[in-house]
Amino acid sequence: MLFLIICLFACGCAAPGKKLPSLEHGFTRENVTQLWGNPTQKSTVGRTRDNYSVEVWEYYKKKSLSKKEETYILIFVDGELYSWAVNNPAFAFKELAKLGVLRFDPLTFEAQQNQLRLQSITEQAQQTRKMMEIIRTYQDINNTRLQLLDQQQRRILQQQLLFPPPKFQQPIKPQRR
Questions:
Q1: pLDDT for residue 109
Q2: Buried (b) or exposed (e) across 144-166, using 16+ Cβ within 10 A?
Q3: Is the domain of 95 the same as that of 111?
Q4: How many domains does the chain have?
Q5: Which of 102, 124, 151 is the last residue of a domain?
Q6: Which of 73, 151, 165, 168 is most buried, by the most CB atoms less than 10 A from its CB?
Q7: Mean pLDDT of the chain
Q8: Is residue 26 within 8 Å of residue 81, measured between CB atoms?
């Protein structure tokens, strides 16, 4: 069940391109569908402690000036809009735990999210470290090349100083008497 919900929040497609109309608590699924259209993702996730059915709907909307998508998560209890949030997957887990649909500590989810962020940062740091090693190697090779060129030019200068090229004398012109 938990895996299904994680997959639900991790996947998706693009949805309405215009600004979405406002929502109100208690809207029916039909009200929301009339205002926002069909959701990108829809899943029945279980029942509350009081045995009401719980559905989670998701809408994906691209921001107008950026490439980022906004994720709208809507939770319905017994067919009515219970709560919603934008760009906050932890919200759904907390709400579903409050309703008794999920039986886990929401802090566990946040800890897992932090661990995933830490792994991502660690991977970025490793990639940066590798790139810095490549740059240092390139700089070392380039410095060695420049040193070799400098040594070669010094040898040429030394040879020219030790064995200067012969000076050509101009032919002596006969003097006219």
A1: 64
A2: eeeeeeeeeeeeeeeeeeeeeee
A3: no
A4: 2
A5: 102
A6: 73
A7: 81
A8: yes
